[in-house]
Amino acid sequence: MGGVVLRPTVTRRALLGVMASLAPLPRGAAANYESAMTATLRQFCLRTFVSARGGLALAAVGSDGLLFASHPAIVRETLWKPGSTVKPFLLQHLLEQGLLRAEESFPCPGGPLPFAGRRFDCSHAPQGAPLDPATALALSCNHCFLHWAERLARARGGRASFAEALRRAGFSARQVFGQRCAPASVSNPASKEAMLLQALGEANVVTTPLALLEAYRRLLASPSGGELPPAMRVPRQGMRDCVRAGTGAEARVEGLDLGGKTGTATSSDRLSLNGWMVSFWPAARPALVMVVFVENGRGGAEAAPIAGAAWRALRPHLPV
Length: 320
Fold this sequence. Notes:
- Helix content is 40%, strand content 16%.
- By secondary structure, the protein is an alpha+beta fold.
- Mean pLDDT is 88; it is low at 1-16 and 18-30.
């Protein structure tokens, strides 16, 4: 997509807060970090999204600052299904509701997974052992997540509770980072089938990349002091493992401790796939979170290496 005009938005205070929290900044380095990261991402997006229609945005986890956003028509003005990027939120909700325990496991049978007239086959290799929730998230195992989401469908008020959790997380936000976005929405599913499709990000939820970025920013914000509760710790571990050896392995960057979650969703006409990769750094103490979206491609498998390349380009400007 040639001739794209990028409109980066940089919040200096947010960026400097991130950098100062990770390492002392040399005198005069503040402006250099700001301009270098912005220029790097601007050039990266101009190169990357020539052949692929997509966009990228970066935010600080510890504040409400948007550091960079490209391609407004993609990241702000159009609605997309989030696909499997909803799974960390589903996992957190199940753990919070006491419908799943961190030490549980489920044996993914592999093979075809037909559901609601579609195919949701798992993309991961046979594991040879039952999967605990963190591993199932890392591998984005549809068999596991549909099995566990059934518990919500059976629970009193469960169908509506996950929709409400997504709304609270920010999936339906229409004003994000001070910018007006397309009218994202999360609706209460009318049936068990619709609720299970929502649990895979394929029905009753459409969002913008900026709203998804804000949802993950909130998800990754750690409470001050103390150990993370299981509802936060298990999704965080699953997303770290996702980049280490899961569906997001193509986003790995040597020397950077990254976490993240891929997502694949069908287009509105179900004739093509859209891809997501939400990633964050450092995984142990998230400070920056990035969303990459690619339209009409190979899904999350295409978005993950783009995210990795973006982090690789940013690496010289990060205090590691």
